[in-house]
Amino acid sequence: MWGAAKHERATGVHRPLRATVAVFAADEAPASGGLPGAALQIMLALDHCVLGAVEHEQLLTQVAQATGQPREVFLVVFSHTHAAGLMGLERASLPGGDLIPGYLRQVGERAAGLVTDAMGKLASAEIVYGTGRCNLAANRDFYDAVSGQFVCGFNPAAPADDTVQVARVTVPGGRLLATVVNYACHPTTLAWDNTLISPDYVGALREVIERETGSPCLFLQGASGELGPVEGYVGDPAVADRNGRQLGYAALSALSGLPMAGTQFRYTGPVVSGATLGAWAHEELPADAWATRTHWQVWRWREPLAYRAGRAQPVQVEAELKRLQTEEAEARAAGEALRAGEHRALAERKTRLLHRLSQLPPGDSFPLQISLWRMGDAFWLGVQGEFYSVFQTELRRRFAGVPIVIATLAADWGASYLPSRETYDKGIYQESIALVAPGGLEQVIESVAKQIESSLQAAPWHV
After folding, report:
1. Do residues 225 and 383 lie in contact, with contact meaning Cβ atoms separated by under 8 Å?
2. Which of 35, 51, 394, 463 has its CA at a distance of 20 to 30 angstroms from the CA of residue 157?
3. What are the pLDDT digits (tens) for 339-355?
């Protein structure tokens, strides 16, 4: 994953990579077989950074055919770990790349098996949501005044969204089925000096949660375009584990404070004591209020985002790639290891850009994939690409009190980064490789907000 790395192949495994399947279905739908797309949403969460369009299409086709489920119900999301290798078929000729095609087929087989297993275990469930805080994530758009450029690294002067959105899933009666942790922070603890396959901090996060709860934990990467760990870019797996524990304990704190499903915390009146006290108690929801919390609705669409003007053309990128490769070879021949390494990293950037350009849909706009579904009083959202965190903070600000679970990096990585409008033309890495024009992020906010607002008007949210 890292252009600055001096090795080509992993030397071992820090923690196993995981595939997690979560199936959501309308409660009135039959428990097995024949579910229409409007009554079903299947989430496949993978411990990988991204998949390209070809690899994503291959995975969807394989899993849909093996399970007999409609393609549109699948949403593939990624923890976004940068320590799992870049699993692109175009890299098969590189050292270790011969393992990629077989590995991807195996991922599809495992995923299909998990989907089949999960479909057979569908049961009525109750979900309670809560919010915690964790300062693991920090802004990573840092201006280096000495070199006069923006670098992608810890910026202690800028704020960062510290929201930890959690969910507890239980069967009626209270038995725990699973927990969900939704947090925005690039898994870039482990970088060019690391030689081990790893889910980065996500592995230790899940270990902490699952050890305490005894149930599976689903991690969903939020809008982390400009967010990364305070301590990152290291080679020591112990740092990744420490980062994961930090987030895990924050999530456990939020989970521990959640009330029982089907209850409300209500003021019951004054109590005369040494002082006149205000008493509160958890009470069962009235039957009519409980009925409103079983709402189910799904929207799936493609939002057309204008490509940015003057974006790189393949012919131009190919010429720059050849130049960098020549200069790398010349530097190595001259014994200039540092300069050779820098040219190697720059050439890798061009190689990845060339591959992304080759997979872009034709036309003047990128059809960004969006999946949004409402379960009761909460909304779950999967969006393609890497959004700046204002995407989640603005949606949650507009719909304060409404739980919104936001998973970015859904589907293939074709959308690349979606920075905020004011980030463009500053020389920041994320906007320098962004494919859509300024305003794309803001357009998606408005599109999603319109759907949420429409749903809440038709079936109001209840405190």
Report:
1. no
2. 394
3. 888 888 888 878 887 78
Cβ-based neighbour number of residue 299 at 10 Å: 18
Separation of alpha carbons 338 and 5, rounded Å: 12
Question: How distant, in Å, are the alpha carbons of 64, 189, 193, 369, 413 from that of 318?
Answer: 36, 32, 29, 29, 21
Residues sharing a CB contact under 8 Å with residue 147, sequence separation 6 or more, in sequence order: none
Q: In this structure, is the dihedral angle defined by the CA atoms of residues 178, 179, 184 and 185, taken in order, positive or negative?
A: negative
Token pair 């999301």 in the structure block, residue: 77
- Residues 122, 32: Cα–Cα separation, whole Å: 8
> Which secondary-structure segment (H or E) carries 322?
helix 314-333
Sorted by where each begins, the domain ranges of the chain are 12-261+295-307+364-458, 314-358
Does residue 62 contact residue 112 with C-beta atoms inside 8 Å? yes
pTM: 0.93
Q: Is residue 180 within 8 Å of 167, Cβ to Cβ?
A: yes
Residue appearing with tokens 């989430």: 43
Neighbours of 297 (CB within 10 A): 16
Q: Side chain identity at 249, as an amino acid letter?
A: Y
| pLDDT 10s digits, 109-132 | 999 999 999 999 999 999 999 999
Q: What is the pLDDT of residues 418-454, one digit of tens each?
A: 999 999 999 999 998 899 999 999 999 999 999 999 9
